[in-house]
TrEMBL record:
<dbReference type="GO" id="GO:0000271">
    <property type="term" value="P:polysaccharide biosynthetic process"/>
</dbReference>
<comment type="function">
    <text>Catalyzes the epimerization of the C3' and C5'positions of dTDP-6-deoxy-D-xylo-4-hexulose, forming dTDP-6-deoxy-L-lyxo-4-hexulose.</text>
</comment>
<feature type="compositionally biased region" description="Basic and acidic residues">
    <location>
        <begin position="143"/>
        <end position="154"/>
    </location>
</feature>
<dbReference type="InterPro" id="IPR011051">
    <property type="entry name" value="RmlC_Cupin_sf"/>
</dbReference>
<dbReference type="InterPro" id="IPR014710">
    <property type="entry name" value="RmlC-like_jellyroll"/>
</dbReference>
<feature type="region of interest" description="Disordered">
    <location>
        <begin position="143"/>
        <end position="162"/>
    </location>
</feature>
<protein>
    <recommendedName>
        <fullName>dTDP-4-dehydrorhamnose 3,5-epimerase</fullName>
        <ecNumber>5.1.3.13</ecNumber>
    </recommendedName>
</protein>
<dbReference type="GO" id="GO:0005829">
    <property type="term" value="C:cytosol"/>
</dbReference>
<dbReference type="InterPro" id="IPR000888">
    <property type="entry name" value="RmlC-like"/>
</dbReference>
<dbReference type="GO" id="GO:0008830">
    <property type="term" value="F:dTDP-4-dehydrorhamnose 3,5-epimerase activity"/>
</dbReference>
<feature type="site" description="Participates in a stacking interaction with the thymidine ring of dTDP-4-oxo-6-deoxyglucose">
    <location>
        <position position="137"/>
    </location>
</feature>
<dbReference type="GO" id="GO:0019305">
    <property type="term" value="P:dTDP-rhamnose biosynthetic process"/>
</dbReference>
<dbReference type="Pfam" id="PF00908">
    <property type="entry name" value="dTDP_sugar_isom"/>
</dbReference>
Length: 162
């Protein structure tokens, strides 16, 4: 555990939020999720996946030691995203940030290692989340330990979802 027992409200250093634009035409819409010419080399994706989260369900809180997540929330539901900065050398250590994202506010979010994160589907429909982390899940050939520290079941956890 990080040793932090309470957090203050604020913005977390190194968490990047980028509004996503939808380009509409008579066929529907298109949304650029990321471009390699707009990302730092250290966060370029190593893989991608899409997950579906049912209404009222929370994923997390958890954190990564080395992995940076590149989440995209664009609908068809809305999410409340929770972030806690536990990084020892961060200027925002001890800060908790909450962000709303999804159908009503399409958003890309870069979450660096050491930032505990969780999200809850606060809408009424199944929600889709895209992630393009900069590390492979379980490493090359899925032969390495998973880079994930889970806090969902930790008794007395300071990472509270409201």
């Amino acid at each position: 555990m990080s040793g932090i027992t309470s957090f203050t409200k604020g913005r977390i250093h190194d968490v990047v939020l980028k509004p996503l634009g939808k380009f509409l035409d008579e066929r529907g819409w298109l949304c650029e999720l990321f471009r390699s010419d707009e990302l730092e080399q250290s966060v370029l994706p190593a893989m991608t996946y899409v997950s579906m989260t049912q209404p009222g369900v929370t994923r997390g809180p958890h954190e990564h030691v080395d992995q940076t997540d590149y989440f995209c929330f664009m609908g068809p539901s809305n999410f409340k995203v929770y972030l806690w900065d536990t990084r020892p050398d961060s200027p925002s250590r001890g800060v908790r940030q909450v962000v709303y994202a999804g159908l009503d506010a399409p958003l890309a979010m870069i979450v660096p290692p050491g930032v505990v994160h969780a999200y809850r589907n606060v809408g009424t429909e199944n929600g889709i989340v895209f992630n393009a982390p900069n590390r492979l899940y379980a490493g090359e050939g899925k032969r390495e330990p998973v880079d994930e520290i889970r806090h969902e079941e930790a008794a007395g956890s300071p990472y509270q979802i409201d």
